[in-house]
Model the fold of this input.
Amino acid sequence: MDSTGPIVIAGALVGFAVGLTGMGGGALMTPIMVMVFGVNPTAAIGSDLAASVFMKPFGALVHQRAGTVRWDIVRLLLPTAVPAAFGGVFLLRALGDGDDVQQRVKYVVGAALLLAVAGMLARLWLDRRRAVGGAGSEDAEVRVRPVATLLIGLVGGVIVGMTSVGSGSLIIVMLMLAHPRLRANHLVGTDLVQAIPMVAAAALGHLLVGDAELGLAATLLIGAVPGVLLGSFVSSRVAGGAVRWALVVLLTGSGLSMLGAPSAVIVLGCLGAALPGAAVAVRDRRTARLRAAAGTADRSAREDVAGRTGPIASALGARRPR
Done:
């Protein structure tokens, strides 16, 4: 049966999620290719990376025009990220051949997905801390930590080359931890720009070993490119917090499935991932109600004071000599 249409739709949905949340597409597309369409894990990884090479520049161009790219950080990431991403492909091939390696790759991808979940949770937590701390806690000109940045490129590159997961979910979290005062939009822009050569190196490695299927990558792009553009448009008008928590649940289930966990464990894992999001939503709603009530009370008090002092002010104005 021809699966071109469903693959285009899947690419559009993943692209929309990428544009809406800023996370990388590999965390969603690779497990979809493996579990829904039955693509071999190595082919899914290579094809997703090949498609990402053409997806990344759209967001990177927007941030470059907006001036939200820290080129000093990019220059420190690339010397380790690019060769590590290329080498990660051959490290993946060292796991073996045939059906056994495909199963091992599923385990590696599953572990990377759960690591991405941990990264997303860390990012949500850091974003909330920044929101509580106020805009003064961010700084566009924060000093770069060279050693930490080089290590981030090394670790992130290996993970991306082996699994296609991490270019938008793990590396950006590591950058946040290494540079906690750096502005959020600078983090996203910097991560997008450095991901282009890193993902290209990983895609080249998979092409050389014969993993990437260019036809599959092209089919993904048919839906992914407009999906990214639409998601980016919506992200400026709709809060993405609920979507991010939904992705946390989805990635948890996908990661556990890749690891071959029993159904009961998958369900419990998804429920455990959903509970923090529900608690945050309830707390945010309660906080909004309290702020609204406080605002109403303050406005009523000001109106009451104005009502009492108005006549006095009028009388004083009438008696003031001209």
The first helix runs from residue 4 to 21. The chain has eleven helices and no strands. The two ends are 93 Å apart (CA to CA). The chain has a mean pLDDT of 78.
